[in-house]
Amino acid sequence: MSGCTEPPAPYTLPPSETYSVAPLPHGASVLTSEPVPPPQECGDPTASLRPFSPGEVPTGPTLDAIRARGRLVVGLDTGNNLMSFRNPATGGLEGFDVDIAREIARDLLGSPDKVEYRVLTAAEREQALQDAKVDIVAHTMSITCERRRHVDFSTEYYEAHQRILVMAGSPILGVDDLAGKRVCMTKGTRSLERIRDLVPDATVIAVPTWSDCLVMLQQRQVDATSADDTLLAGMTTQDPYLRIVGPSLGPEPYGIGIAKGKDDLVRFVNGTLERIRADGTWERIYDRWLSELGPSPGPPPATYRD
Question: Could you tell me the domains of the chain?
């Protein structure tokens, strides 16, 4: 009978520490402190192959294969607001890097829409090129001597600068304030290497994507993140309580990544970059996506090695 049953025990909440701290994102790891190897030297890493001559019909095995396929396969991220991200209203991919890739497709295939996108993390970019999973990588990829050992690059199409992002009211105002702090960084990036070199006693949390860093910063799991100003500006547009602080920690020259040995594609891409520097397209792309960073600095000039 119901009158003989014992009343239920009162519900008590578990101790707060069992649920108040959010878990680290999938794939995150705390890096141990160890010496950072010195950077490779190769002269000017931004020097690339000269475009095809004016009036010359660009051809070659890689270009012919892409034309026969009918689409350009581009590796990028979909979580880098302003650079390459999915528009929640349309479902389409947009951003500065997306528009650069579309201009390459316009020149090569006659339409900026003949692009197939494949999503990559920063750590996957080089391997995707080596495995021929993509034709090009347009993914805020800085040109470095170390990377040139594994892939080729176009000429520089944008110069970003690494800076620091914190929540409003943070006492962190520059790189010296990161000592002893938890800093979120993305795996496979030059930004991570630079922070470990400049602040060896910072605790670096390495994650797969920059959007992971945004969430960890908002949840107060880390004190700061440091990345290219292009990426940080994208984060500030998503959260008005974020602040970019401190001077530049160093330049990051972006190039289009291309697999080794595909010189015809390198020359073709450099031809497109020459065109958009000259005809105002680069400026229009900047004004559309990166005006958060201030007036246009103008496209970086090309440097050629042949």
Answer: 61-157+255-293 (3.40.190.10), 161-251 (3.40.190.10)
